[in-house]
Amino acid sequence: MTEQDKVKTQKPKKDYLMNDESKNMDREPVIESDSYKPADKLKGKVAIVTGGDSGIGAATSILYAKEGAKVAFTYHSSDDDAKRTESRLKEIGAEVLVFKGDVGDEAYANEVVDKVVETWGKIDVLVNHAGEQHYQSSIMDITAEQIDRTYRTNVFSMFYFIKAALPHLTEGASIINTSSITAYKGNPTLMDYSGTNGARVSFTRSLSQNQEITDKKIRVNSVAPGPIWTPLIPSTFPEDALESWGKDGALGRPGEAYELAPAYVYLASDDSSYVTGQTIHVNGGVIVNG
Q1: 71, 89 in Cβ contact below 8 A?
Q2: What are the tens digits of pLDDT across the range 14-33?
Q3: Which CATH number characterizes residue 264's domain?
Q4: Is 184 a catalytic residue?
Q5: CB within 8 A of 176, min separation 6: which ones?
Q6: Predicted structure pTM score
Q7: From CA 281, how far away is CA 290, in angstroms rounded?
Q8: Phi-psi region of 37 (alpha: psi -120 to 50; beta: other; left: phi over 0)
Q9: Residue 1, Cα to own-chain centre: how many angstroms?
Q10: Exactly one of 75, 193, 258, 264 is catalytic; which is it?
């Protein structure tokens, strides 16, 4: 059986694994796999995942719940996705908080953190995952409004959530920032998005060395996904670009969110106690030397 065939056999168990936009795809995204074996790696921990309603964020939230964490996740607009993911986390047995709003709004970040601390008393894991991208073949088509929106969601939000959470992060806590393969190899049709991910990588490295962080033994790392098949992809790229999308790596195929989420578990758990300032590349075998 080829690697591609193995992935095709990983069928989602229930329709909560699907995103509303899945009906527009040739194939459905898979955010959960029966092959994952939890081991209480996050038992008793409190985690915040921004953009946790679908795709990679939902896959990560689900594994955190399976590993015993209490999970708070944010989302922007898709109520149906948020309800599905919330229901799945509760089905697993997790305590859950859900917040709708704009991560690029500092007041919203403060509101989320305040409610989590009021409810659970601490924060052990902060995953800055929420992001957005816009396909533009010419830089001349990238408006000031688009630049502001992309950077506000992808970069400003990290500062807002970290500033809000830092006083409440436990000693040895973990901050995980989602970056992207585009930070390393670029993308000619996602120029502003690629720029934000370069910022995320540099910020991750810088924050990990900051004395305010090191004094509390907080670890700061990043996950740089390659081509992962989520609802964002067909909604971003033109149809003719999807045929070859994600096939340039050694494995010759796009990845699924469930294949990426264990990296977030590793960085959130004590297994990565000697890892900080680093980026884990989950990209199907694209060598980026970074």
Answers
A1: yes
A2: 333 333 333 344 567 889 99
A3: 3.40.50.720
A4: no
A5: 125, 126, 127, 128, 129, 220, 221, 222, 223, 264, 267, 268
A6: 0.88
A7: 9
A8: beta
A9: 30
A10: 193
